[in-house]
Amino acid sequence: MPVDQALSQLLSSARSHAAQPVDDLPLEQALGHVLAAPVIAAHDVPPWDNSAMDGYALNSSDAEQARRQGLQVSQRITAGMAPTPLQPGTCARIFTGAPLPAGADCVEMQENIELTDNGLARLIQAVQPGQNVRPQGQDVRSGSTLLPAGLRLRPQDLGVIASVGLARVAVRRPLRVAVVSTGDELVEPGAALLPGQIYNSNRFTLIGALQRLGQQIIDGGILPDDKAQTSARLRALAEQADLIISSGGVSVGEADCLGQVLREQGEVALWKLAIKPGKPFTLGRFADTPLLGLPGNPAATLVTFLLLVRPYLLTRLGCNQVDAVSYQLPAEFDWPRSGSRDEYLRAGLRDGRVVLSGNQSSGVLSSASQGSGLVLITAGSTVAAGESVPFLPFSGLLD
Ligand SMILES: Nc1nc2c(c(=O)[nH]1)N[C@H]1C(S)=C(S)[C@@H](COP(=O)(O)OP(=O)(O)OC[C@H]3O[C@@H](n4cnc5c(N)ncnc54)[C@H](O)[C@@H]3O)O[C@H]1N2
Ligand code: MOO
């Protein structure tokens, strides 16, 4: 199945779930969460006209007098003060962020003011009404929609919410995601390797990626290649989790138990995609809990997480932006063999050009660490150096 078609099936499956419950979180804890409702401003920002400069506030109709002889300085206004109305024919000493007094309509910065011996402030050059004034509501208008539902909160969004005085925000509760690795060959790092064994690397890739997305992780450990144990463990995890993510055991081998257990005791809705690495990616269901089965090869686990699991998860959270960011950049490599699957190669950037970052076998993970993103070679196409190719930075895929 072409990746686009699989992705749209995956996303419609994600949308078929009931919306996640809403949590009312303090702003300090809301980073990375998805807004459950639009944020509406109850205040203007700034709340009143204020000065953009350290200088002198005056009424522009007094500018002529201010240039010829200077104006008396009738009050001093610092940020945090409430000014009194400006006496006509005078000016006010004012500082950046301080409220403009009623009657003033412009500010001249202090560098352009000359103080006379008798303490008058004289303008060196002409001023315009509105000059150096930040008008009330310039940033945010009361009653306007500041941020839409479905936005995943970034630091600047938290700042904007705080600017209208809100201390809490309604967000979607993260999913409880169970992570399981499968395979008799796996042992956890720290233990000694016996013949035939390898270290479990996918568990760390997956848990790290889920932590980046702010999900709640249930560590399901390692499942042996045994159908009864696989079934029992999946059943236990299904009870606690909103989603199970597995790695390995979804290809066609006799020891690929997880796929067999799903087919016999659960359900498989999607299997075998035209993506490389990652062909045996599986969307299934076990004991009423959705299961995303990622192929065990470490690069396939990474690529299918980034391109398929991430948008699925974000869609379940009601996120309005789930597409992978990609930039068209010139390739500094040739890829003369076209394939029947969309191929995602591990790559980096050198002087604005895309370079491959090492061995592209789906069993090789270190080339992903050496690179800074993925480059897409669409099924059926080839690439000659100099042609532009879509580059997907890890920074966009992992946040
Ligand atoms: N006859 C066929 N064989 C295979 C096919 C096929 O179409 N026909 N597809 C190949 C492709 S493509 C992939 S991808 C793999 C995926 O297989 P599984 O998802 O069943 O994964 P496993 O067989 O369990 O493992 C594959 C590989 O990855 C290693 N692995 C597994 N889990 C981990 C882990 N947690 N940490 C590190 N490494 C892991 C495992 O030892 C294997 O080397 O199937 C191909 N075969
Ligand atoms: O899909 Mo597999 O990852 O090509 O090796």
TrEMBL record:
Domain (MoaB/Mog) ranges: 178-315
Cofactor names: Mg(2+)
UniProt keyword annotations, A-Z: Magnesium, Metal-binding, Molybdenum, Molybdenum cofactor biosynthesis, Transferase
Alphabetized Pfam families for the sequence: MoCF_biosynth (PF00994), MoeA_C (PF03454), MoeA_N (PF03453)
Keyword match Metal-binding: yes
PROSITE patterns reported for this sequence: MOCF_BIOSYNTHESIS_2
CDD domains associated with the record: MoeA (cd00887)
Pathway: Cofactor biosynthesis; molybdopterin biosynthesis
Catalytic activity, EC: 2.10.1.1
Catalytic function, reaction form: adenylyl-molybdopterin + molybdate = Mo-molybdopterin + AMP + H(+)
Cross-referenced InterPro entries: MoaB/Mog-like_dom_sf, MoaB/Mog_dom, MoCF_biosynth_CS, MoeA-like, MoeA_C_domain_IV, MoeA_C_domain_IV_sf, MoeA_linker/N, MoeA_linker/N_sf
Main function: Catalyzes the insertion of molybdate into adenylated molybdopterin with the concomitant release of AMP.
NCBIfam families: Glp_gephyrin, molyb_syn
PANTHER family the UniProt entry points to: GEPHYRIN, MOLYBDOPTERIN BIOSYNTHESIS PROTEIN
Similarity section: Belongs to the MoeA family.
Protein name: Molybdopterin molybdenumtransferase
Organismal lineage: Bacteria, Pseudomonadati, Pseudomonadota, Gammaproteobacteria, Pseudomonadales
